[in-house]
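Let us practice reading a record.
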Amino acid sequence: MRKQTSEKLVQMVQLAILAALVVLLQMLGGFIHIGPTSVSLVLVPIALGGMLFGPAAGAFLGLIFGFITLMAGVTGTDAFTNILFTAQPFATGFICLGKATAAGFMGGLVYKLLKKVNRWAATFAAAAAVPVTNTGLFILFGLLMVRGTLEANFASETGVVYFLVIVCAGFNFLAELGLNLILSPALFRLTTLLKDRFSARNASKQAETQDTNPSADTEKTDPD
């Protein structure tokens, strides 16, 4: 019971660290723009959290990412999101929160489904699933929900599809996909190695403790 409580506490601390990284990286990434949208450095800890702790954890980290993105639009820190929010606040809120949450969930789900087949192939598939879902839903929701606003403010000459796929996604998506494919599996490998080593060390210490402290239930010899 005590061991399970300790493991849950460690997981909560690790998840909190990943959540803090999501906030920090999203705030820093907001200043790195390629075209109208920023590069999402934050997808790496989201993918890592989904692989380590499951789809729900990935979705939670994605939700934090979406909330920070939305707040940047509300406050005007991100000009692109601010224009969308000013014109269509509910649709913009749904896009920001929905695509990010779904991306985190999909990363965790893909890893969960594939890890029994090949654990390391599953890490690469999950790492790819996060940016693919995030960008794919951004384009889909953009076409379905804020097409008029995009056309009026950004895509009157190029067309909305070209604007979303090439101008907004384009190099950003390739950069996010590349970073995720390189960093997420590597960090997952490092994390699992450290976790296994820590668990082995704890098991060894427990065994040593049991050897040096015999059970009190051992039968005592009769002095007579």
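A brief commentary: Residues 9 and 167 are 44 Å apart (CA to CA).
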